[in-house]
Amino acid sequence: MSVDTATAEPSGYxxxxxxxxxxxxxxxxxxxxxxSSNRARAAYGVAAVLQRFGKRIVPVHPxxxxxxxxxxYASLADIPFPVDVVDVFVNSDQxxxxxxxxxxxxxxAVWFQLDVIDDEAFARTRAAGLDMVMDRCxxxxxxxxx
Length: 146
Hints:
The chain has helices spanning 11-14, 16-25, 42-52, 92-105, 119-127, 138-141; strands at 3-4, 9-10, 29-33, 56-60, 85-88, 109-112, 131-133. The chain is of the alpha/beta class. The protein starts with a strand and ends in a 5-residue tail after the last helix.
């Protein structure tokens, strides 16, 4: 696997050009899987950052709570409008199923948060034609775009 010198990580799942493309040109509707009204959870803060940078966040959580003023949905399949990016805040062992759901709903990209890694899901998602990033955080990456 090649190494992306900008990030010093394997370019296969965290290439700087893929990160930039997802954040700047893939679209502005981000389904945040695992987002609830629990302010102590990382998803809550990351979703707030995404909103500050002009992204529409869509909470996806079994409780289907309204978070940051946006209506929540129990699953990706329940969202009644197109989603551009699916941002995944679940354990790695559950993340592959979420990636498959993202493909099924026609999302353009999947973003696995820090410490969420599933190489098989990455391969399936990329084979389906979606951009994908793993083990990165958009709240860290988006301010770096300048």
